[in-house]
Design goal:
About 80% of the residues lie in helices and about 0% in strands. It is mainly alpha-helical and about 120 residues long. The chain is elongated and about 70 Å long.
């Protein structure tokens, strides 16, 4: 496992000039470079960004209550106005569980989309 992480770290910090030289020696077309080298290497980073955006979106969805959008913001802000602590806690836990569930699903999809050699 440690060897795999070391190899991945070497791939991430591998200078672009070295990769360009290897690609040039194989005489790959620009499309082949994109689909065989650049995109597979970028999949984990793109996936991490998408997962972060999902969690951030779920965390900010309750603020849609201010725009009369409803959702989980309705019980949350209603409980804040009436000072019902149990409802506030329950709604916050539901929002956090939804964010964690979406992050887990995103992680599973990211792992499925990542090429074997990079995992």
């Amino acid at each position: 496992m440690a060897l795999r992480h070391a190899a991945l770290a070497a791939l991430v910090v591998l200078p672009l000039a070295v990769v360009a030289n290897l690609v040039f020696q194989r005489r790959m077309s620009p499309a082949a470079i994109l689909f065989r080298v650049e995109l597979p290497t970028a999949v984990p980073i793109i996936g991490a960004g998408v997962r972060t955006a999902l969690v951030l979106a779920v965390g900010t969805v309750p603020l849609g209550y201010a725009l009369d959008a409803g959702g989980l913001g309705l019980p949350l802000f209603g409980a804040i106005k009436t000072d019902r602590q149990l409802v506030i806690l329950t709604t916050a836990i539901m929002i956090a569980c939804l964010a964690l569930l979406l992050d887990w699903i995103g992680g599973v999809l990211q792992r499925a989309a990542t090429p074997r050699g990079i995992r």
